[in-house]
Amino acid sequence: MSIAIIKNPESLFKYFVLLLLLPVIGAFVSFIFNFNFDQSFDNQYLMGDWLINYSDGGFKRRGLSGSLVFLIQDLTASSLSLILFLMQLTFFVLFLIYYFKGIWNSKLNFLYISLLLTPITFMAYPSYAFGFVGRKEIILFFIFAYYIYYLKYSEKNLKKEYFIYFLLVFAMLMHELTFFYIPYFIFAGYIQSGKFELKKVLLFFGSVLIPMIVLVLFGGKVNQGESYAIIAKRGITIDPYGVLEIADSFSPLKHYMEFWPGYLLYAIVIVAGTLQFTYFLKSNNPDKRNRVLQFFIISIIFSLPLFVIAIDWGRWIHIHFMLLLLLFSLFLEPLNKSKTYTKDFKIFTRNNLIALLIVFSSVFWKMDHFKIGINPGGIAKRIITGSF
After folding, report:
1. Distance in angstroms (rounded) separating the CA atoms of residues 257 and 206
2. 303: nearest Cα among 323, 289, 325
């Protein structure tokens, strides 16, 4: 079965993708609003992480976000909840803007769309909001989306390039997880130029390594005794035993020993996700498949220390596949608007049916941000139970 398309069937996909992602975007905005304004939501991790600050004991890891929020509150007299909501929303919107700008003039297909609609990429937000919505990695997603757009479309100049390095330093001071994903920036530059430029490689590594060394050598504890009181004076009571309580004292080994069966399931998620992404390359860019697979394995290995010292494996895996999705923007062919298609656009092809199967199966499971790699339910459970 096929349908006739007069001009550029691929051009319709950008609107189709946007339409599919509108519920995801709406869910993200709704959830961060609830997390910041509804007192019945658990705020010990999401808000607590964003409110780590330098006011309690001085310089520390992740402390820039809270100090920025405090500064904005002092200047505007706004509530912390409103400032946090707008800050998280701003980074999310910037990420979406540059992601769509990066794919807007590219040829898309159903197989590519299936990469977006899985619990390891965009569908992580509505399927398990507590673990993924509003987290600080949204800053990293924005920076990488901006970098991909810069590589594809922006006129190259030193100001823009050094602005990206500055953003990486900023991201490191917001959350040190940025360090473990720097290979994606290096490989993106390699894909675009066809070579590793030593100066740029050193600048990328320096942008995250120098802040990491400074944080390790001079950073104090996340909570030095006054964080809860300082935040409370500014209008928010953070629930106890959250990130402010355990960031410096939690021992992951005991946790892994207790919940190891659930953590083993994350291997299935990584393998399944890798197969899905490599199948897209096999169908669209077969000459790039082996190189990208090798790079992805290197990236996973580079981030292994993060998996050892921090228990949010679902988040770390989600970040890997979101960055891989953004990286794949470089593999999309440009859309030739002047080309007229006289052949039919076939709906029922093998790739399209596989894409449909991937999307259909994705609504019946979710990936938790820690402890359980695969959990039945997902979007289907939310729809059936009405638990939005």
Report:
1. 35
2. 323
- The ranges of the chain with pLDDT < 70 are 1-13, 336-348, 386-388
Burial of 377 (0-12, 13-18, 19+ CB in 10 A): middle
Q: CB-based burial of residue 89 (10 Å sphere; 0-12 exposed, 13-18 middle, 19+ buried)? A: middle
**Total domain count for the chain?**
1
Query: What is the token pair recorded at 141?
Result: 């997603």
Q: Residue 254: what pLDDT?
A: 93
Q: Whole domain around residue 141: which residue ranges?
A: 2-385
pLDDT digits (tens, 9 = 90+) for 154-177: 877 889 999 999 999 999 999 999
Residue 240, pLDDT score: 82
Instruction: Give dist(CA 315, CA 124) in Å, integer.
Output: 9
